[in-house]
Amino acid sequence: MNLPSALPVSKSSAPSGSALLNSADAARVDALIDAHRDMPGALLPLLHAVQQALGHVPGAAVPAIAQGLGLSRAEVHGVITYYHFFRQAPAGRHVVQVCRAEACQACGGEALLAQAEQLLGCASHSTRSDGAVTLEPVYCLGLCASSPALQINHKLHARVTPQRLASLVAELEGL
Amino acid sequence: MDQPLTLQLFVPRDSAALAVGADEVAAALQAAASAHGMVLHPGSACATPTAATLVRNGSRGLFWLEPMVEVATPAGRVAYGPVAPEDVAQLWPVLLAEAEGRIPGTPGEPGSPGQPAPHRLRLGVTEQIPYLVLQERLTFARIGISDPLSLDDYAALGGWAGLRAALQAAPAALLHEVTHSGLRGRGGAAFPAGIKWQTVAGASAAQKYVVCNADEGDSGTFADRMVMEGDPYMLIEGMAIAGLAVGASQGYVYIRSEYPDAVAVMREAIDRAQADGWLGDDIQHSGRSFALQVRMAAGAYVCGEETAMLESIEGKRGVVRAKPPLPALAGLFGLPTVINNVLTFAAVPLILANGGQFYRNYGVGRSHGTLPFQLAGNIRHGGLVEKAFGVTLRELVYGFGGGTRSGRAVKAVQVGGPLGAYVPEPLWDIPLDYEAYAAHGLVVGHGGLVVHDDSADMARLARYAMEFCALESCGKCTPCRIGSTRGVEVIDRIVGAAKPAAAAGAPAVVQQAQRVQQLKQVTLLRDLCDTMLHGSLCAMGGMTPYPVLSALNHYPQDFGLAAAGSPTPTGTAPAAATT
Given CB 3.0 to 4.6 Å as the disulfide criterion, which of B7, B29, B125, B128 pairs with B52? Predict the structure, then answer.
């Protein structure tokens, strides 16, 4: 909705503790705001676009997004933190997502997640300290007739055996 | 030898095929072709090929056979699968011979004298595979056959017939056909689609909306994804008909972010349909208009609930709205809105093309038409089985599914997604029909079946249901937000109490006291489920008790409870779903 941007939100009043965007990223965010400003219900499409461009939605982008769409910073922050998909920090260089929905659980999905934690040296829901990999459980990749399933860097894999997971992990560079 | 020139091969592009290597198989076929001095051109399914082509079709939904390579032959398309990239070199001459009609026989049959036995991956003529022959594919009639994005394929296989008819008809006639068909919401709530549409049509507003709920977040479901990836124009057509029927000129498809392939195919299909005059300001020069946009969700399960989805499309946190007002009257941006699931809209073109009575003739009781059942989890032949209502779980799990993939006994089948009940063996012969299932405290939902073998720990799955609800609750209502967390704790106490009680050596009086404590916790869990069932705003909290109580009632031994003296299977099951 095209809400009036009457809220006295200043771009410069970034929340304390959050780093400022560098000028190139700030320009990209501003361009994306302009491209989405007139769309009804623009916030989710804009956040998707920002995450696509920058890899995550930095806290420092929130004031500009809020002002651009005529929202409060709290509203924007609330949306970013509500949805699992939006990242507030960059992901690792590789992202491994293991499905732990019921259909995959029925075919050893839990053991696969435990194996992934061990092989990657990374607890689930976290990014390894060297930034090489992020491991996330996900709820349903829609491959429930071919369980267990996982996704590595946007590529789906189904009917994954422990051997297959080991070879997929071995193929990842820089681990 | 001009036959090889008309070689027409098919490798699915459905993400479940891609996830087991379909792209690698397609690349291997290209490599084999070029090694033989040929090039495989991209092509569609229905055009007569003038050169060797490789069609990227949707999936037939026989996922244990993916990647399934098909080749056009004089006898029809013949399937091979599951094909690994390393099989292709050996398969290549077989496919060429097949295209020329030189390969007789089916697997298992010895070749006739002088003929080699058929290739071990040969499945025979695709449309004669029993798994497909025994289905009643109405919604899935084209899926797996056509190139999903080919407008020529779509039109050649009956596409746009419903929308053409709708453009000639008055809105009242469209509403009548959809109402008469008996079509009910396929997302799980099973509300009559025609009634909902009439409510929106009767509302007066300058702008109305049509919203497709494609936030298919339930485990064990993939039919929506297959429709979007495999026959996107059918969904577009169904939504456009809805727009004409209710007077809405703008539609949204809300697709989950976990389905990037479906998002990409839908976006491309919308662009192509628009360019071809099937969407936009003047559909096929009729003067009627309907525009469509994809909105990508962001990984919140509860946004599959219709009002949370509206909030999300509006750019807010996906928090459930209290009803009334009904979304049909005050929906997206506060305006009248038709909201249906992918499969509901997808059924509409056929209803308009063949008439409501045609669709109504399928099914039993008040459950008319067909439901695309999704056989998932620990099942040998997992896939998509579209059948008229009235089929039984036993037919689906054993007849089609072939039992478990692990080879062990089936312990439980969860029907209707993570908020559906676990159905034990004595109830597998109830016809799958909304009312018959509800009478037993079960839900058909969207027809997703997740099979568990006898190694499943039902107490653990019940705990998982509560844990999932706690994680995904939008937080608006207390029974769901708090009840789910308390539910995890209570289940832990029930299971925990069983362990010391079973320990050898504990004095009888201690064991007795522990059993009393445990039964108190069971009472508490039932009470909690009762509160969630009746006090939650939406199905998230309101239906989490279904898997929990069904596990407790039918598999008490998994909770460390004695089976004897446990409640009757259906006596304490929840009586009715929330909306």
Answer: B7
